[in-house]
Amino acid sequence: MAQEIERKFLVKAGWQPQGQGEKIAQGYLSTMPERTVRVRIKGEKGFLTIKGKNKGISRAEFEYEIPLKEAEAILELAEQPVLTKTRYLERHGSDIWEIDVFAGENAGLVVAEIELTAEDSDFFRPAWLGEEVSGDVRYYNANLIKSPYSLWKK
User: Fold this and answer.
1) What is the Cα Rg of the chain in Å?
2) pTM of the model
3) Is the pLDDT of residue 56 over 90?
4) Nearest Cα to 60, choosing from 141, 118, 1?
């Protein structure tokens, strides 16, 4: 079984991208806590992803590349609104950080994620890394379509 072990952090103000980002549009066919099913268009590729319920920072994950035209059609069936963001990749030593800059109703939210090989893996913490939000369900992409960042009380 495929396993995702991921930690998620807010990004401090002042961070600037290192290089080109990639536009992502993703929609959810299921946002139940027991499982999420999403379709994603990343650049010119489509993906279908099924994720199990979180157990700490781990969960089952199955991702499949699908034809772009099919991803576009499935995205039309997804819960609305569709989540949009730009993803930037940054390497620090052997670690690769995915930094997502959200758009639309989630504009202003910038989140960094790192995938690990074990829950207790060590990793480099860049200076721009802020508060950890791994266990905060408000920051799950599936929840951001229901409760967008712009509507949170600051």
Assistant:
1) 15
2) 0.94
3) no
4) 1
